[in-house]
């Protein structure tokens, strides 16, 4: 797509689900059948915070409770810019006061232990409980400590994954600042599916930018069990253009498959031998967040099967699962996917509380990736229902043009910042 078309399309992606939700708001003058029906939302990220806000916007007489243990939410999008030294973590921090004061959401900073589908209650760690007529769960992902020999909870403090923004992000940044020039950084991406498919490769570029400026003799090895990855051609050409041969990627067939990690020796064992690193960013395999497991919402895959027409759980009716934890057809696990699903699900929940057949809508995703602070690439797509499954609309979206000038990539970096400002304001503004 050319730059003008791409810019217009990106604006559409950011606005389409909002327009849909606002149309629903304008078209919802009829009060709910029961004026104080209760919806409890678990998780205050891109899915949960957005769902809670739009529930209240669409149905102001609905009693909405958002359960989120943290008073500040740090976004995973743009956290790689923190690791590379281009943003401060505080720039990615958002609180929940506005959701309570402006929209009337009851925000509870507590840990939801599990949902009891039979009694329709959310059970809290402190012994309390919250009744619901319907619940929306957006638990994100949890790291798997059962998949790799040598990897456990304690290993995270030595080989930080930094796949949830916060203290782990800062630890990885600190480790990078401590290595000597000529050091080696290992990045070990997980198997599919996982949160933010292009994330490890964006991280490689931004770490390379830091190393090129401060420790130019250093190198980055990406040891990847996969044979290909998202936006691969754009990443590899961009790495070569910006950093020469500083970044090397090894697929599983060429030694990228990791068999064991050894935190004490700062090494990983592959089928081709031992690789040592001064910094090792081991990103573990993932599955749905813990509460989904505790509540019996997952299948044998570790993810949550849902009716993709409404995101209602196929295991426990009355509970809707959105965002990274949900099996959502062709949609990737990303921030905008979660946000788009949240608005659609909020409308579906209101319909179902009113004993109406939920309407269908278009869903969208776009994902920007930085290779340097002023150099970004992107992928975008539109999705709809085909039967009972979410599929990509044929011919929709696309990726950044190959072989583009640096000026084009610079413009994409500006669009990325605009996208981030827009979606976080949509969540918390």
Give the distance, in angstroms, between the N- and C-terminal Cα atoms.
32 Å
Number of strands: 26
Proportion in β-strands: 25-35%
Low-confidence stretches: 1-16
Rg value: 22 Å
Major beta sheet, specifics?
Answer: 5 strands, parallel
* Strand line-up of the largest beta sheet: 5-2-1-9-21
Tally of DSSP helical segments: 10
Q: Could you report the average pLDDT, rounded to the nearest whole number?
A: 93
Give the overall form.
Answer: globular
The residue fraction in helices comes out at 25-40%
What structural category arises from helix and sheet content? alpha/beta
Characterise this structure.
This protein is an alpha/beta fold and 429 residues long. Helices cover 31% and strands 26% of the residues. The protein has ten helices and 26 strands. The strands form eight sheets. It has a five-stranded parallel β-sheet with strand order 5-2-1-9-21. It has a four-stranded parallel β-sheet with strand order 13-12-11-17. Strands 23, 24, 25 and 26 form a four-stranded antiparallel β-sheet that branches. The longest helix is centred in the N-terminal third of the chain and has 24 residues, at 3-26.
């Amino acid at each position: 797509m050319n730059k003008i078309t791409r810019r217009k399309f990106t604006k559409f992606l950011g606005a389409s689900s909002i327009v849909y939700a606002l149309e629903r708001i304008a078209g919802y003058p009829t009060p709910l059948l029961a004026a104080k029906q209760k919806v409890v939302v678990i998780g205050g990220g891109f899915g949960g915070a957005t769902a809670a806000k739009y529930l209240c916007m669409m149905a102001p007489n609905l009693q909405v409770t958002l359960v989120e243990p943290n008073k500040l939410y740090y976004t995973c999008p743009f956290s790689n810019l923190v690791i590379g030294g281009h943003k401060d973590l505080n720039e990615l921090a958002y609180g929940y006061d506005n959701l309570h004061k402006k929209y009337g959401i009851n925000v509870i900073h507590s840990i939801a232990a599990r949902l009891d589908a039979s009694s329709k209650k959310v059970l809290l760690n402190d012994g309390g409980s919250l009744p619901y007529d319907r619940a929306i769960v957006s638990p994100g992902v949890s790291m798997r400590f059962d998949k790799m020999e040598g990897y456990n909870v304690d290993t995270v403090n030595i080989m930080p994954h930094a796949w949830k923004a916060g203290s782990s992000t800062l630890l990885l940044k600190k480790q990078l600042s401590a290595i000597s020039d000529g050091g080696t950084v290992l990045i070990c991406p997980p198997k599919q599916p996982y949160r933010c498919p292009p994330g490890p490769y964006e991280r490689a570029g931004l770490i390379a930018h830091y190393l090129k400026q401060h420790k130019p003799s250093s190198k980055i090895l990406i040891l990847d069990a996969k044979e290909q990855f998202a936006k691969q051609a754009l990443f590899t050409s961009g790495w070569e253009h910006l950093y020469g041969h500083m970044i090397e990627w090894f697929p599983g067939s060429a030694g990228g498959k990791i068999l064991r990690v050894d935190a004490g020796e700062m090494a990983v064992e592959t089928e081709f031998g031992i690789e040592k690193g001064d910094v090792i960013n081991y990103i573990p395999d993932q599955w749905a967040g813990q509460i989904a497991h505790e509540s019996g919402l997952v299948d044998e895959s570790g993810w949550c099967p849902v009716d993709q027409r409404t995101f209602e759980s196929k295991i426990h009716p009355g509970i809707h699962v959105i965002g990274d934890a949900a099996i959502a057809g062709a949609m990737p696990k990303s921030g905008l996917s979660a946000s788009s699903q949240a608005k659609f699900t909020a409308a579906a929940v209101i319909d179902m509380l009113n004993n109406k057949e939920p309407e269908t809508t278009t869903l969208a995703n776009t994902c920007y990736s930085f290779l340097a602070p002023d150099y970004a690439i992107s992928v975008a797509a539109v999705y709809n229902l085909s039967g009972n499954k979410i599929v990509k609309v044929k011919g929709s979206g696309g990726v950044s043009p190959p072989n583009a000038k640096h000026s084009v990539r610079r413009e994409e970096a500006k669009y990325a910042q605009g996208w981030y400002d827009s979606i976080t304001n949509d969540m918390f503004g």
